[in-house]
Give the backbone structure.
Amino acid sequence: MHTRRTTATPAALAARTVSKPCTRYEHDGTPCGRLTDRRDQWCGTCAGFHRAQRPKPKAAAPRGGQSVVDAPEPLPLEADDAHDPHLNVTRHAIDQYRQRHGGDAQAAETEIRSLLENLITTGDHRHLTRGSWRAWRLQADEGFTLVLSADASFVIGYSTAHRERTYAQVKAAVPSRSRTREKAWVLQLQDDLPIRFPKLVLLRFARDVLGIKFTRSTGERVVAEIFARSQQVLPDPPPSNAGRRRVTDQDGLRWHFHYEPGSHPTVSHLLWEHGRGPEAAKAQAEKK
Ligand SMILES: [Zn+2]
């Protein structure tokens, strides 16, 4: 960072003064098309998804060798440096970004730089050591991480705890598409609770545990009962409030908790252990 620029390049200025159609999508997959002069080509009004559809979940990649994280230490960059052409964003980081959020390479780089700008001023900065390899790790409480080279001249990695929303979307409080598919009345039933239950989980709990149907008239009771029961098995949240936890209760019911920073935990699945639950009991009874 020997020749830091403090004024925007002509190209950056042009990008900010010429209005172009917003390239993003609404929750339901409708293209936006509002005019915007923002650098990231998001109008900021629509939901801002890069893809029309939510991608299918991928199996988690195996984790690499354990890295050692040192004590916090401020990265030697200023917020302006995030947009400095002497700071590079590697193809690898751009690919990681696009795999998660979609969009083209240019949009990915712009958004990574904008995230970096925010992380330089508000993020947690640490040295990372893995054998002889050194790097910087910058992390946002909202669940976004950038890895920079040891000399802080390259952004070499990107990761997030969110399945598809970008940092800008999370900051703008765009809800995740997993939750917005739910019917309004199902969401209203749990508005005051610190945990979320998707409709499929409520249906199963009502049928298998309470022996009733989950409907508008039984909804309140089902939600009260499942909430009480979930509190008995509630695990400690994972580090950074991101990831999954699985707990089996005394009746052999497996609770899958899903955590995402900035959101309430969700019970994503309810499953019976092998040989437990009403189906197994029925099969057992038929054998006799
Ligand atoms: Zn838009």
